[in-house]
């Protein structure tokens, strides 16, 4: 649950001065073990609107073996462990409500291998998606998953991140080929492998993807890569109605047009973007498109999508094929978080997401919009509409707790609405501590199986306790 | 391990006449519980070359609730359970070496829902892929995964099947959205859901996909569907060398050309196909292609792939755009199993597969071919080469046990070769009983995690015991 509680600073060290675990870790890591307040607070706070909860110490790891050694010490002393990548998670994944040790993996920055012919690579968990794409710049390859923030790839695997072009390239679930994981008892395992497919035993890779550090700590990630398309075309189109925009998306997807991105901004979101990025888009429900392919094929896709949009009241199609123009357009889309914060100076943001079958998307968004307006909170809507996934960005005055209360009620109603439509409480942000309360409603008896798996792998409940499940 | 042991018929009933489990199941199912020898033997034998191992009884289930009731009885009496779909598995998945009850799901034939706008459907486990596509015939949609055999969709999920067009549409892993599963204690769970993506908790769906009935019995499957492409173009091209053919594939994939299928037949396989399907393909390494898209785009893909092939010594490209011609071509590809059996009258076949990173594929196939020739067994090679996956079909005289011995040695060397190249012991056939011995070499310490999960969900080891893992 998001909490607006005024954040009292954590004491300089919460661990007892002679804490044997801290002593052991200091022996292992030297200056790469910190108990300084500022460091601990930074590691107990995320991008979103949750109360900071600092760990007792932060361990800056550099290798898988070091993570395993830290884990063994923590297991021996029965102390919780919280993994930390870039700190960009949104649902309370990195807070340490039970204290313990935060393992910061951001120093694990090596790209371990790039296999150009096989379109794959292996990276340490701390490499961010932008750093990887920079590393790949001369290969003709790229890693497409783009959740907006420059998250670490280990963190993206841990939360099953996705973002704008999941509609074409899939999510982390489809693009992680294998993992190196440190388990609760310090064992190191390698899951998956480099072949494109395998039926050899249980799919441990996808069990750890999205497990948010509750089953093990991801220290290395094997990823699929893609050839950079010869041509990219981007376009913007505004619609008379939100239902028209969504229906255009449904037909586009059904027609097999492989859109690389297709994003919906409601009129409130367009307004925020116009102000922030100095654009003059009509104040209407708007779709942002991007198409990848050969010159001919990207143009044909754009033309077909354009015809479909017209049939549903889409107008004023603006196309951008030059990289400069495309970048300007997509920068505006990527900046919605800051555009939204700028709507209300001094405000803090709280991002939440749900995902529904696409046939219910218009209905789900419209009812949610109505609820927002009637409740009287500020919350533009933006959506990865090709997947049926959309986000609310609540823009809240940190000094007005009633705003948070209203937002929480809107969020809860939105989640229950999504579930009643066959959807999920989170399409890409994960469960963290915020959405635990919805898991039973979504998965029913299956939650008991998740709990069995958790206890089998982490019987002491040391791995990021309090996240995803109550055990 | 494949075994050529002469198959003695199982006695008419192996269960004691007053077996209380059989009595209980008969009370539940009446005539849908069989202990007849012929029925039991049919259910203990697969398409491949493994010794038949009959269960004590076969239960013909019609609903999830019935499967759960059967499972509860078996748990109460600590007796093994083996799920059975269409009986088309290849690695000893359906044999019942420890007896117990085979649950035949082939009567679970209902297509429960088709959601056209959302491109998804839900089926009972016994629906076969052809039956589903027949059901979909007026919707403009299709389910693409095609392992060759008309397998049940529950069985395809359980073995993580794929086949010729996985290179474009993915495997069962990417196309199963959710499952209904009966657990070892009779609990019924629903995993996944209808939204295109979710980060809500552990990915149970993909844990059960490929678990071959060892963690639970899949009774319903939620699947992704696709719009039937406007145009399909197929083509055949022969190459001077196998390395040339594979290099053409690598560049085609790297260029982002979304081939729907790209299959490699070595010259021995081409010979078998020519004889069986009365074709006159040159006796050379040959690629079969298929492209899906709009008219313009499918043609452009074919043209681009053709140019690439030419650069690697590909010649005699033959194109087929008419459905009739495409069908003839792909029928020949689909019939390789029978074409191979026809090479040696009275022979039995044993199909095995491995998968490697595509950059190692030519090397892996050539070394395997050399080994086959030196060892002196008959084994054409066919491959889903876009994925790096290829198959040997050993064609064996059932009365010459030395042939099987040689084949087993070739298979073992092939698997170890694939593993040394970063590959997997099976790309799509699964582990069953045959490939258990390779799991440790492939996954190392991770096998201990698989075992922990197995014991957490099935502490009595009742679910398809002896498959995938030794517990």
Task: Outline the structure in words.
Chain A has 471 residues and is α+β, with helices and mostly antiparallel strands. Chain A folds into four domains: 20-106, 2-Layer Sandwich (Uridine Diphospho-n-acetylenolpyruvylglucosamine Reductase, domain 2); 111-227, Uridine Diphospho-n-acetylenolpyruvylglucosamine Reductase, domain 3 (2-Layer Sandwich); 231-337, Alpha-Beta Plaits, CATH 3.30.70.2190; 344-429, Alpha-Beta Plaits (2-Layer Sandwich), CATH 3.30.70. The first copy, chain A, contains 17 helices and 18 strands. In chain A, strands 15-12-14-13-17-18-16 form a seven-stranded antiparallel β-sheet, sandwiched between helices. Chain A is globular. Chain A starts with 19 loop residues before the first helix and ends in a 14-residue tail after the last helix. At the A-B interface, strand 9, helix 8, strand 11, helix 9 and helix 11 of A face strand 9, helix 8, strand 11, helix 9 and helix 11 of B.
> What is the number of E strands of chain A?
18
The outline of chain A comes out as: globular
Number of domain units of chain A: 4
Q: Average pLDDT of chain A, to the nearest integer?
A: 93
Helix content range of chain A: 25-40%
Protein structure class of chain A = alpha+beta
CATH class of the largest domain in chain A: Alpha Beta
Oligomer: homodimer
What is the CATH topology classification name of the largest domain in chain A?
A: Uridine Diphospho-n-acetylenolpyruvylglucosamine Reductase, domain 3
Strand order of the largest sheet of chain A: 15-12-14-13-17-18-16
Gap from first CA to last CA of chain A: 18 Å
Judging by the overall fold, what is the CATH architecture of the largest domain in chain A? 2-Layer Sandwich
How many helical elements of chain A?
A: 17
How large, in whole angstroms, is the Cα Rg of chain A?
22 Å
Strand content of chain A: 15-25%
Largest sheet: number of strands, sense, barrel closure of chain A: 7 strands, antiparallel
């Amino acid at each position: 649950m998001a909490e607006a509680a005024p954040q009292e600073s954590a004491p300089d060290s919460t661990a007892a001065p002679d804490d044997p675990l801290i002593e052991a870790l200091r022996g292992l890591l030297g200056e790469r073990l910190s108990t300084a307040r500022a460091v601990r607070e930074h590691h107990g706070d995320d991008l979103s609107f949750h109360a900071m909860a600092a760990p007792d110490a932060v361990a800056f790891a550099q290798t898988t073996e070091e993570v395993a050694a830290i884990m063994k010490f923590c297991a021996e002393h029965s102390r919780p462990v919280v993994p930390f990548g870039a700190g960009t998670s949104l649902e309370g994944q990195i807070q340490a409500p039970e204290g313990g040790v935060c393992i910061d993996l951001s120093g694990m920055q090596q790209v371990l291998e790039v296999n150009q012919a096989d379109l794959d690579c292996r990276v340490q968990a701390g490499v961010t998606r932008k750093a990887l794409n920079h590393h790949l710049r001369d290969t003709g390859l790229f890693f497409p998953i783009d959740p907006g923030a420059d998250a670490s790839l280990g963190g993206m695997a841990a939360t099953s991140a996705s973002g704008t072009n999941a509609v074409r390239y899939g999510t982390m679930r489809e693009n992680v080929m294998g993992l190196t994981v440190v388990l609760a008892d310090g064992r190191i395992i390698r899951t998956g492998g480099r072949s494109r497919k395998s039926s050899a035993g249980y799919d441990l890779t996808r069990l750890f993807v999205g497990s948010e550090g509750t089953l093990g700590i991801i220290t290395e990630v094997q990823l699929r890569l893609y050839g950079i398309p010869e041509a990219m075309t981007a376009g913007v189109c505004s619609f008379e109605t939100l239902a028209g925009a969504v229906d255009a998306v449904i037909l586009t997807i059904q027609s097999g047009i492989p859109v690389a991105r297709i994003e919906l901004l409601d009129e409130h979101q367009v307004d925020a973007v116009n102000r922030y990025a100095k654009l003059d888009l009509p104040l209407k429900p708007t779709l942002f498109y991007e198409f990848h392919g050969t010159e001919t094929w990207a143009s044909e896709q754009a033309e077909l999508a354009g015809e479909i949009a017209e049939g549903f009241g889409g107008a004023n199609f603006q196309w951008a094929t030059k990289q400069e123009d495309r970048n300007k357009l997509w920068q505006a889309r990527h900046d919605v978080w800051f555009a939204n914060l700028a709507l209300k100076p001094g405000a803090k943001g709280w991002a939440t997401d749900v995902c529904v079958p696409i046939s219910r998307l218009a209905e789900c968004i419209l009812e949610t919009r109505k609820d927002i307006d009637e409740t009287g909170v500020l919350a533009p809507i933006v959506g990865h509409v090709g997947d049926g996934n959309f986000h609310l960005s609540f823009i809240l005055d940190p000094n007005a707790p009633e705003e948070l209360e209203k937002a929480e009620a809107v969020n809860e109603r939105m989640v229950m609405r999504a579930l009643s439509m066959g959807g999920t409480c989170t399409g890409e942000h994960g469960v963290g501590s915020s959405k635990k309360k919805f898991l039973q409603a979504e998965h029913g008896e299956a939650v008991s199986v998740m709990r069995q798996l958790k206890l089998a792998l982490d019987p002491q409940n040391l791995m990021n306790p309090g996240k995803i499940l109550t055990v």
